[in-house]
Amino acid sequence: MAERLAIIDYGSGNLRSAAKALERAAADLGREVAVSVTGDARLVAQADRVVLPGVGAFGQCATALRSIAGMEAALQQAVIEGGRPFLGICVGMQLMARRGLEHGLHQGLGWVPGDVVRLSPNDPRLKVPHMGWNKVAFTEAGRAHPVLARLENDGFAYFVHSYHLEPEEPAHVLARTDYGGPVTAIVGRDNLLGTQFHPEKSQDYGLALLRAFLEWKP
Fold this sequence. Notes:
The chain has seven helices and 13 strands. By secondary structure, the chain is α/β, with parallel strands linked by helices. It has a single domain, classed as Rossmann fold, CATH 3.40.50.880. The strands form two sheets. It has a nine-stranded mixed beta sheet, sandwiched between helices. Strands 6-5-7-10 form a four-stranded mixed beta sheet, covered by helices on one side. Helix 1 links the parallel strand 1 (about 5-10) and strand 2 (about 35-40). Helix 1 crosses helix 7.
């Protein structure tokens, strides 16, 4: 029976690109994975793996996610109570935080204690938003993570963002990039993983991460 992977559709992000990348990763592995893009909370609650993408402002994305009847409860059931592997992408990763400070104060899912704050590069020549390819460097915790162990340290990934997550617990930071100072690139704990960059736009590096995520059994 094919594994069920739900990509949450709450009106944010290029969902088809994420779906195609995950389907390609599954095909590379020779695995049967039924990838569905869905706004149905019942399907999310039943999924074997959950992916939360996101593009846009933190508050708008949080509101849109919570506007879907039963979705936050479904995430709690599948991910927190059920322990199923979860991947947050870009703003989807930021929503894992306790709070977002973009255009006011907004509550996140609270899975990773910390705030999502505006980028403030110490080099005035660096523009915000940060857009483009940047090196991803693992922390000590990242090097020990079973997903990242299959990736190349100091690989390059594609970023598009103006805000980033600052976790309270250093152990939750699995990788950083440098953009006029350290910027969180990957966070994780338990069965949760989040990338500030877009794996679906990061070519071989992104596909390697998605393959590792599909094989991950936390």
